[in-house]
Structure formats: C-alpha cells, structure tokens
Design goal:
By secondary structure, the chain is of the alpha+beta class. It folds into three domains: 3-154, Gamma-glutamyl cyclotransferase-like (Hypothetical upf0131 protein ytfp, Roll); 175-218, no CATH class; 221-371, Alpha-Beta Complex (Nucleoside Triphosphate Pyrophosphohydrolase), CATH 3.90.79.10. The protein is built from eight helices and 17 strands. The longest helix has 22 residues, at 144-165. The N and C termini lie far apart (66 Å). It catalyses: ADP-D-ribose + H2O = D-ribose 5-phosphate + AMP + 2 H(+). Belongs to the Nudix hydrolase family. NudF subfamily.
Length: 372
C-alpha cells in the first residue's frame, strides 16, 4: 500500500525507526495534494493537513509497505488519534495517484501558521526519533491509546538522554568501557525501571564479570530555591511525597525548593522559571546556577539542575497552587533568612537538593544582597 507522508515522518531517521525499514528512503517519491495546506497545530509543534483552496500540501509517497510495516505505522499514529484516510495526490508528472494518509478527526486541532519542517527537524527531530524507539518497542505490549498516554514521558526520557549525550563531561573511562549484555524493561509508566546485565572495565584494565543491576529511569529536573535579596527571604514549598510515605516516614509531606521536569525542547533555566510560576505564582527575574548533578547514580538516571531564583517575596506571597490534572497540591511558605538558616544548620530539612541550594545561598548571600 502507498502511504502519503506530510508531517513529522518526513524526518527520515524518524521514518526509518517507525517503519522498521532502514532502506525506506529508496522507496519514496515527491507528491502534492492540491487544495490543502500543512500547518502547525495551534499550541503545539506538530502539523496537520487541512483544506485551503489556495495552497498545496507537499509530501512524499512511500511505495510498497509490508503488512508488518503498516502495523508499526498504524500503532505509532493511532497513539495520537490519527487514522488512515484514502485520497488522491499528484506526482511530479501531475499524474493522479491513490494513497492513504494519517489524519486526525475533523475539528480535533486548530491550524496556525504554515508548518516549518526544517525548524521542527532542527528543534525536535533528534529527540522525537529517540522517543520513537521506545514508543515502537511498546508494540505488542501496549495498545496505541496506552502508548499515547505514555508518550510525553517517553519524550521527556529521550530529552534527558539527549541532554546527557551533549554534556561534554570526560574522564579516564567512557561508555565504550561498558558492554551491555541485555536490557529488560521491568516496568513502564510515568517512570521506567530497567534491569541490566552488563560488564564494565575495572581500574586494573580488565573487564568485570557480568553483573545484574536495576535502574530507575527518570528524567532531568530543574530545581529552584526562590530568594528575595532585598527582603532577605526564602520561599519553600510543601507537598505530599509517596517515596517518603512508602519508606514509612511518619510525615510524608516534605519542605522543598520548587522543582519540575524539564520538557523536551526546553532549557533547564526555562523550566525553573516556568515551574516557579506554576507551583508558586512567582516571577523569577534571574537565576544563579548552583549545580548540575546526579542525586544517586547507582540506582537512578535522574539529573538535577539546581538554581537560586532571584525574585520578590512580599508579605502575602504564600499560597496553594499546583497542576490539578497532575493531582498537585502545593503549599508555598516564606521564611526570613534567620529562620531558614537556623533550620538549615539544625538539620531540619530532609531533602538533599534543598540542603545543596541552602548552603550555596549561605555562602553567596551577602554578594547577592550587595548587588540587589
């Protein structure tokens, strides 16, 4: 069957992953659908094809896909509520050609400006291709709807891997000194748990015996401790934490800096500013980098970008906020520096990122106040 592709799958590495055919580019040809336009979806980065009498929707036709390849494409596209519709396109010789294409239900999305394919590829092509590897691996284990619900988490995990690969951190040993024997997904959901069999190079140059490890696969997070250098105040947030509850802590509500996952295509600084607005309703005017580090690399992939956020914390800045769709119930509170510093030195805080940010602030507070 011939399939007309006009959107993100025009990024050939992504098409190869989704179709499962590394030679798929040898079976494509240019085509157009007159009377239609490809536009960015309002509020999103991906495109839709919609009627526009004065436009032409450009794309490619993939010839001769097998049933197995179509099954992969169907699984991937149905996850986003797209289904196949048959119509006619024109090839380079203006000859009509019957094709099928993946389109959303009528009225599902609102078109914005014409879609900039090259910009999308530059901004999201690589991370989307990385996420598609995990998405397609779910074929046979999830329904398309289930995969679609998990896809934002897959994108966040892919963005974390992309960020790690570009970190530029070097040492005496590297990834080439690890031999992965097998990786098994023990759990897939909001987070993943992977079980690994591997060997690694020892410091004497030899390779270790095979070892079995389990890794909690999280995503990169931005963490910001808001500080008002004029009023000499700090803001903390408090919320229920299931990890503390499951450990048996008698008080599973913890005092923390503001924190949140870094979205695909977002810089850590952008995430810190966004989360401060979402969780506490405050505007961060500038950021001071504290650290970018793993909290516990023996068991988790999580990586934290910790900041001090310069802001204003007047009387009445506290409140209750959070994303209701994510069951967030977050209470903010403002502490004068003397109160915060006393609690910090007394060991009253139970979250390591808060301790890191708090002690950094203690060392640099006077310079921040002097420049305020």
């Amino acid at each position: 069957m011939d399939v007309f592709i006009f959107g993100t799958l025009l990024h050939m590495p992504l098409l190869e992953v989704v179709s499962g055919d590394s030679d798929v580019t040898k079976r494509i040809s240019w085509a157009v659908r007159p009377g239609y336009r490809v536009s960015r979806v309002d509020g999103h980065e991906f495109p839709i094809m919609h009627e526009d009498a004065d436009s032409v929707a450009e794309g490619v036709v993939i010839e001769g896909l097998s049933d197995a390849q179509l099954e992969r494409l169907d699984f991937y596209e149905k996850a986003f509520d797209y289904s196949r519709v048959d119509f006619v396109v024109l090839d380079r010789d203006q000859a009509p050609r019957s094709v099928t294409a993946y389109v959303p239900p009528d009225g599902r999305w609102t078109p914005a400006e014409p879609w900039n394919r090259e910009k999308w590829i530059s901004d999201f092509g690589e991370v989307t291709t990385m996420a598609a590897i995990e998405a397609i691996a779910a074929l046979g284990n999830m329904t398309p709807m289930q995969m679609g619900l998990q896809y934002p988490n897959m994108m966040s995990r892919a963005a974390s891997r992309q960020r790690a690969a570009k970190s530029g951190v070097n040492g005496r040993m590297g990834r080439e000194d690890v031999h992965l024997i097998e990786a098994r997904k023990a759990y897939a959901g909001f987070f993943n748990v992977e079980e690994l069999d591997l060997t690694f190079r020892r410091f004497d140059g030899s390779m270790s015996e095979p070892v079995n490890r389990a890794v909690f696969v999280g995503v990169d997070a931005a963490i910001v401790l808001p500080y008002d250098p004029v009023r000499d105040r700090v803001m903390l947030v408090e919320q229920f934490r299931p990890g503390a509850y499951f450990r048996g802590d008698p008080n599973p509500w913890t005092l923390e800096p503001i924190a949140g996952r870094i979205d695909p295509g977002e810089e850590p600084e952008e995430a810190a500013i966004r989360e401060a607005q979402e969780e506490a309703g405050i505007k961060i005017t500038s950021l001071r980098g504290v650290s970018a580090a793993y909290p516990s690399p023996g068991t988790t992939t999580e990586h934290f970008y910790v900041f001090i956020g310069i802001t204003e914390l007047p009387d009445g800045a506290e409140g209750v906020a959070g994303n209701l769709s994510e069951a967030e119930d977050i209470r903010s509170q403002v502490m004068d520096w003397t109160e915060f510093d006393a609690a910090l030195n007394a060991g009253e805080f139970r979250l390591l990122p808060l301790l890191v940010a708090g002690h950094w602030l203690a060392r640099n507070r006077e310079s921040l106040r002097a420049s305020a």
